[in-house]
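Hey, resending since the last one bounced:
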Amino acid sequence: MLRRITSAVRRTRFQANQRSIRAAAIREVRRFTAETLEQRVFLSVSAQTLEGPIGVAGNSWTYQYAAPGKASSTGTLTSQGTVKYGDQQAIEIESSGTDSSGDTGTEQIFYGNLPQGIVILESAITASSGPSEDTVWSSPYYLIAPTSLDAGVPFTTPTATATQTVTSATGVKTTTTHTKSDVITLATATPSVAIEAAGTTYMCYEVDSTDTNTVPGNPPTTSTTQTFVSPTVGLVQIKGVTTTGSTYSYTLTKFTGTSYQLAVRQQPTNTLAGDPINPTVQIALQDGAGNVDTNASDAVTVTASIAPGSTGAGTLTGNTATTVGGVATFSNLSINKPGQYTLNFADSAGRTVSSVSFQVSAGKLVFVHPVKNGIAGSSLDPVEVELEDSKGHKITDAPSLVTLNISGSNSSNPITGNMAELVGGTAVFNGIKLAQPGTYTLSASDAQNDATALSNQFEVAGPHLVFTKEPSKVGVGEPLRYVITLKNSKNNTVTNSNDFVELSLNPGGGANGTLSSVSDILSFGVADNSDKQSPISINTPGDYTLTATLFSDSTMGPVLNGTEPVAVTSKEFQISADKLKFTKPVLATNVNIPLAYQVTLEDYKGEKVAGGDKLQFNLITVSGGSGAVLAGGADSLLGGVANNTGGIPRLSINVPGTYKLAVIDVPPSGEAVAKGAISGEFKVK
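The structure tokens again:
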């Protein structure tokens, strides 16, 4: 897989045989092909480092070459993307250019990976040195990634052999075999040379090289080259000299392809000392639009380090990862000591990015037991907080002051008794008091604020109203049976209160009744509707709840419990309009024979009420029946129905005549009386 390829190209300078016209022609062609090939090869690789953009088909660069006393040259390099070359993956670059004398050249360049970061590049070039001369050249060139070299240590490339074939204007082909080797040295281990281009200064690597080229029948020629490469933008500046005295320089003038940078895909989060950071930190290789470079051949190694200015003195481990699909995942990144840290990330191409700041804690605080509900102004039950490691073991050798604060919407409310020292790993709070009633959550933090915890949610009660007797079922217009009591924070009756409560009715199921009065007075903290001269009632049957809100007798405004009014709502109760109904008529019968009838207890909806009330019957004479007596006279509801089976003796009449029965309800003590009923006429013979 290609790393950043920013090495020097070997300079090839061929000496022709001056005694032969044919040799002179060969020399001229070699001058053109060697110089143009070298610059194209170098720029195609060094200009932007092979780590993504050069492997993206369609990306292109322009270049220029100039050497005093030599023809200048300009051209374009265009990536063809990743191809299969031989038995390995390679990237193909097509280069075309024209020099100032009108000569043109085209080439295809293929390169792939070799051990130790050496990239061998094979180039095939077809060039024209005039209307009658062609050159076809193929040769390997070694290119070295600066980061694969040790600064100051020379590296000698293997000897390469190349064959050049020149076809003259008369069609005569001349083939020459030559060899070359190179000695390459990385001058600086970091990008430390400032190079200015287009008004911008770039910090660059310096790679120095000396190559030796040998052609049979000619003395060896050498070139020395200084190459400066920016690891971030691929800026290239080349300066060199040959044994013939020629000096030359190449400069990349434009890049029109995709450039990539590092981006933090998953930031580090707060963690414990020695624990892997979770979620795992991820660094992505992205283009300017935030798209990840998923080209496998563009993989790079990313290294994390602790940034200067971090407060901790820890050591970072698990800090190297290689991009897979453009993303480097640090699965075991950890720091062994607490502190506030920022991480720097750098890849093998020299690109960098920094993380957000995060906290590494010695341990985590834990509430040992849930915090219990309490009373405003009174001490809560003791609260214990422990310092634990990631495995849940108590840390006993890290003394610190632990502070409890209110978390959430009530955070501004007063709290006292909220500081305690960790002793043997546990902080015990014996006197926490919350002055305001409400719903609370406590947050615990140590003195370094690098270990925190949240408690469960709990309630703190203050002055509050209670239905000490809930409203129950009564009839329309009958006094409601309720008792409302004002309690203090210790749940005792506030006997010195003569405030009042505002009452509101909450109808349910379509009921639309109203209260006979919308307020009641607290007498020594108690409002009892049963002892009023004008007790409160409801005028319409239905299902209801009753809400009582405390109002101050002095301010005439609602009393607040924190930000909410002190109020209470009753359980649901019914205002009854129960009635008795002859659901089966009284049948004609004979004297002293039990009457046949059915009486049902119904509610205001006409639905049967499963009651067990006693019923009292009275006889109404329509005609005849002088001296008639209704024997029995009583019955009982069974499941809300009476049919002359519940009394002994059963109801009967002893004198013939025409009659009606009147029935009235006799409920258990304290319950509403249902409306009575009168039957239709019936005959007794």
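Residues 21-46 form the longest helix (26 residues).

Sorry for the duplicate.
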